[in-house]
Model the fold of this input.
Amino acid sequence: MCGIFGCALKDGSAAPLIHMGLKRLEYRGYDSVGIATIQEGAVRVRKDSGKIDDVAGRLGFDEMPGSVGVGHTRWATHGAPMMVNAHPHIDCGGRIAVVHNGVIENYLELKEELINGGHNFVSRTDTEVIPHLIEEELKGGIDFGKAFLGALRRLRGSYAVAVVSSADPERIYCARNESPLVLGVSDQGVFCASDVPAMLPYTNRVAWLRNGEAAVLSADGFEVMRIEDGSPVDRGLTEVTWSLEMAEKRGYPHFMLKEIYEQPRSLRNALRLQHQYLDLLTAFLDRGRELFLVAAGTSYHACLAASYMFSKLAKLTTYPVVSSEFVERYGASVGIDSIVLTVSQSGETYDTLRAVDHARMRAATVLGITNTVGSTLTRVARAYVIQQSGPEIGVAATKTFTSQLLVLAQLALRLARTRGKVSQDEIDDLEAKLVEVPSFVERTLEGQAEHVEALARKYADERLFLFLGRGVSSATALESRLKVLEITYVPSLAYPAGESKHGPISVVEEGVPCIFICPRGETRRDIVGSIMEMKARGARIIAVCEEGDEGIIDLSDDHIEMPRGVPELLSPIIYVVPLQLLAYHLATTKGLDPDKPRNLAKSVTVP
Ligand code: AGP
Done:
């Protein structure tokens, strides 16, 4: 949940590049920041709590000399966000500086052992055990590389680490287990980072480290080896096609807004996926007795919506499950006949990968949908699809949600066709509508953006929102609620509308805004009843409904008009879009930064 950037350059100072690299990783964590470089054979560290540019200006990051260095932007897991807990962390002799992303599970026992051995700890972090462990290993008179591997073998838990030392001043030592780390090579030198966009200004030739691997970087190249036994690993470079421009804001004030507007394009990309991969996943799905759709957060909401598609179209018993609950809830019953389709934008979410590990151990077939080439999910899944949304920097997932759903819809339709459970005409019709999804979204953005912005101003001071929908629209309601909640901090509720009378309705009083998701379809008649219930208690109704749906519009105080002809089952992909915009404008109207919501990180790689 932190960002790492390091470089070994042939010429010039590493620190300004590290500073810029960390800026591009700010979405992974932003409570503290620090850099270590090697200057005239000695380790120099500057670090503090605060935003990257503030700390960089105050401590003069860009003036730090040395052509080899590592940096870190932190999202606190152990120890409060303060200078002493910021990375890099050093050993007693001040000769080894370590940056780390992840959680060392056995740090307390290691710390106790090291303190008993005379080591002096200054922070409350788990990371600090690493420089001291290396220091301890070095006492055996071995070279730095061996000491590094020896220390890693003592660690349990997740880590991506990068280390510089005066004992070997020309090199960076790095390693990964469960937390991502990518290497890059350019004419200028060699880089390591938590994510590809951070190094795109310098190179697009990259290599991903895998779990259990370490690497030694110098300005001229890198060597990869297995942590377990130090044996060499042959790892070639891959050329990534993301341009730097793709990863930047392109004139939008925030990444979130840019990503909302990218949806017509990302959805078109999701329709261009290679058919053989979709066919392969469909073949696996067809073998299953039951389907678990496993994910966290927004990705879970995509799974929830998709569960209606798989059940209704393919007649496959489908369970959408929050990944952190999967082992507790289904761990004992999942087995060889189960298909576990895992959805994760990052492909690195700890809870989701833990569910995957369990499912694999129980001999279930694990499939994946992710946006991240080379992520852990792509390596552990039996088969997977890359959703091709391009990098998503905003912490609040937007374009990756709609693309996940479009991929899932394609799979559900393929499976329905394979199984022959739904009439040919219905499938043909839905497939024709699938192709229209990007233009439905385009028309919504063109037609409703200004109106939604005005609605956000009107409702900016509300202290509670209710989001309600029936059937597949309950997933739209939950996802829209999550968007509002995570970037505006306004406590909000979301429920399947039929459930509201079993409790949530008690919070409704005069003027409370209730947002109803009302596509045309099987659930429309029931949603009218739910609207009436809320109106009778004084709620203000904001309906997201089809253009010209006078029955709903007449009942509403405000409404957002959606294009005609959207099938209910596909409606979450389109109906969520104006509500993403509503959340965005509510946040900016309140003066909040939607790209960096408090306490949240883009990729949650810790338990
Ligand atoms: C949504 O806006 C959040 N960023 C969060 O809920 C996210 O969807 C969740 O952490 C899952 O991430 P993943 O898709 O990378 O696994």
About this structure: The mean pLDDT is 93. Residues 424-458 form the longest helix (35 residues). The radius of gyration is 25 Å. The longest strand covers residues 96-104.
